[in-house]
């Protein structure tokens, strides 16, 4: 399967702990996106990479959040000092500027902060 | 509020009927995309319509776009129980770095 993959699929953590999620995009997709989705809502944009450069960050991305894409392939999203309000599904998507603008989403990482 | 807003928020139909979902948005766009999401899972891309297109078809899906009204509709014909899912429109706004702005979604239930 050459789709977008995300790990872990589920994460339960205690408030105050740090968590890190990983996203592996479709091979050769140079664009990678992170979104957050809470129950009953549509996804909300968090940040966007083109190759290894982080080009855009939402105001939703507080100082406790950091994302990296060090080699322009996989990406990590870290949340420090988690809060209950961070509980959500974190979705990763990738796209190729050459092929168009469709974004292909991974299955998501569901975070529960207790 | 979010850029795209779907209407209705929930829709329940019988298998075989058609389902129509509408989406409105606020700013100028490059394109508008429709996605499907099964409960608790990732989003599946359905169809993309560019700002200079008015209608597009893909299998049982028909999407229209009216940029003068800043609205789009998704029609699913001859619905099946497997079409039960949430459907989201997402806009790729001009000068927005290709980030997608999603609406709140329409929850479609197709009864067998």
Describe the structure.
The complex is a heterodimer of chains A (114) and B (112). With 114 residues, chain A is mainly beta. In chain A, 0% of the residues lie in helices and 49% in strands. In chain A, strands 2, 4, 5, 6, 9, 10 and 11 form a seven-stranded mixed β-sheet that branches. Chain A has a four-stranded antiparallel β-sheet with strand order 1-3-8-7, with no helix packed on it. Chain A starts with a strand and ends with a strand. The model of chain A has no long low-confidence stretch (mean pLDDT 92). In chain B, strands 2, 4, 5, 9, 10 and 11 form a six-stranded mixed β-sheet that branches. A five-stranded antiparallel β-sheet of chain B has the order 1-3-8-7-6, with no helix packed on it. Chains A and B meet through β4, β5, β9 and β10 of A and β4, β5, β9 and β10 of B.
What is this entry, summarized?
The complex is a heterodimer of chains A (114) and B (112). Chain A has 114 residues and is mostly beta strands.
Number of helices, counting only DSSP H or I runs of 4 residues or more of chain A: 0
Determine Rg of chain A (CA atoms, Å): 13 Å
CA-atom Rg of chain B in angstroms: 13 Å
The SSE string of chain B, one letter per element, is: EEEEEEEEEEE
Q: Give the strand content of chain B.
A: over 45%
**pLDDT averaged residue by residue of chain B:** 90
Provide a count of the helices of chain B. 0
What kind of assembly state do the chains in view correspond to?
heterodimer
Q: What is the 3D form of chain A?
A: globular
Order of helices and strands of chain A: EEEEEEEEEEE
């Amino acid at each position: 399967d050459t789709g977008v993959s995300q790990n872990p699929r589920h994460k339960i953590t205690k408030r105050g702990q740090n968590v890190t999620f990983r996203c592996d995009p479709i091979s050769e997709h140079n664009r990678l996106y992170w979104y957050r989705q809470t129950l009953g809502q549509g996804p909300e944009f968090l940040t966007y990479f083109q190759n290894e450069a982080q080009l855009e960050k939402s105001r939703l991305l507080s100082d406790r959040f950091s994302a990296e894409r060090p080699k322009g392939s996989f990406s990590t999203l870290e949340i420090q000092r988690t809060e209950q309000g961070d509980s959500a599904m974190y979705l990763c998507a990738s796209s190729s500027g050459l092929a168009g603008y469709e974004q292909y989403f991974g299955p998501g990482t569901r975070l529960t902060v207790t | 509020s979010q850029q795209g807003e779907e209407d209705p928020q929930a829709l329940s139909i019988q298998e075989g009927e058609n389902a129509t979902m509408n989406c409105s948005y606020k700013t100028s766009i490059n394109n508008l995309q429709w996605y499907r999401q099964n409960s608790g899972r990732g989003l599946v891309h359905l169809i993309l319509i560019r700002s200079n297109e008015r209608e597009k078809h893909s299998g049982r899906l028909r999407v229209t776009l009216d940029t003068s009204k800043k609205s789009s509709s998704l029609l699913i014909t001859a619905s099946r129980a497997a079409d039960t899912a949430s459907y989201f429109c997402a806009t790729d706004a001009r000068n927005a770095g290709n980030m997608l702005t999603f609406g709140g979604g329409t929850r479609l239930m197709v009864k067998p």
